[in-house]
Amino acid sequence: MRFFYTIGIYLYTLGIRVAALCGHKNARLMVHGWKESLTKQSNNQAIKTAWFHAASLGEFEQARPVLEAFRERHPDYRVLVSFFSPSGYEVRKNYAHADRVIYLPMDTPRNVRRLLDTYHPTIAFFVKYEFWYNYLGELKRRNIPTYIFSSIFRPNQYFFKWYGGWFRRQLKHCFAHLFVQNEESLRLLQGIGIEHCSLAGDTRFDRVHQIAVAAERNDVAEAFLKDHDGKVLVAGSTWPPDEELIAKTIKQSNIQAVKIILAPHVISEEHLQAIEKLFPDSIRYSKCLSADAAQNSNNQTIKQPNHHKVLIIDNIGLLSKLYRYADVAYIGGGFGVGIHNILEAVTFGKPVLFGPNYHKFQEAHDIIARGGGWSHLDANELAAHLTPLLTDPTAYANASQACTNYMNINLGSTHIILNTIEK
User: Fold this and answer.
1) Are 233 and 325 in contact (CB under 8 A)?
2) What is the pLDDT of residues 143-160, one digit of tens each?
3) Cα-flanking dihedrals φ and ψ of residue 407, to 5°?
4) Are 329 and 323 a contacting pair, CB within 8 Å?
5) CB-based contact 355:244 (threshold 8 Å)
6) 124-138, 278-292, 373-387: lowest mean pLDDT where?
7) Alpha-carbon distance 260 to 242, whole Å?
8) Are 310 and 300 in contact (CB under 8 A)?
9) Which among 58, 148, 237, 402 is most buried, taking Cβ atoms within 10 Å?
10) 257 with 230: CB under 8 angstroms?
């Protein structure tokens, strides 16, 4: 089975290289990154190295609480961070808590040996769904303890199929411990004979809580909301179907006293212009800054954005901090492949609304069950959920408290993981 797996990796690698030659930007970044990752100077083997691997930016944010707490507890370790996707590497390549940040070379036997010979990790951490079997096998062969955390397992995964014996053996023998998010995952692993696993929850709760605690005031958002005595809807990571639905709902429901802070998932001129057509009384975040402020990020406003009803966030990195200004949060992506991160809003105690494609996200199921979130199929359903939250103080207070309670009972995964490892 390992032979067929490795052949598949070679074919996948070939596909990426062909895409790079054809001009695909992310493929070019990956191919260049693989080369850079394997040509860096070798680590001093006398210095211990902790390796953290995440697929992309979302998984890296899950890793951060564990990584940063590990580094604080073990300052004698170097930290290596690897990404599979450019969406993670390009954003976090200068991450201050890592000594080196690299692309993960493809999982071929030669690449595996070269990477481990270059960086000499003494402990390895993988996040959520990262199962690279040649890496895992070589880490095991070298007696390097390897952990995976914030994992979720489902009955339809190949580990639990009749043909999944080889994959089950990799889980059983290559990981020193598996930390899972929920009881179902724990039962599934124990059902195939894996006992070195435990329920630790989702480290994203710890991460979004860190963001909320450290969130700074935003001058543009506060200028936009100046003298506004109505409600605020923050719509985050939206796609065109989300934006069209919000515009239709606000218009049909005649909700006049609400202001909207809208942060699209894709920031392109074409998309921004489409949003401005949907919301004529809008202003872009960048237009609320002077030229110097835009360069220096000191948020000195030059306009009075409070005369507008919609503030369009046309830059990256602000959204998680802007949920603090919401009364209600709309989370985009639910009419596509799946909703984006609802916890960034829930951590501020903000009720959340989202489209129908949420079923792969445990936190969405949980928050719906607790009365802090709702899903909708159309404008009528969205209005039916949104209106009470904007007009009924009791309904809003109950939903907000449900979000706060949910966060509180799910904090602490980081300490569970590190305390288990350090026993």
Assistant:
1) no
2) 999 999 999 999 999 999
3) -60, -45
4) yes
5) no
6) 278-292
7) 13
8) no
9) 148
10) yes
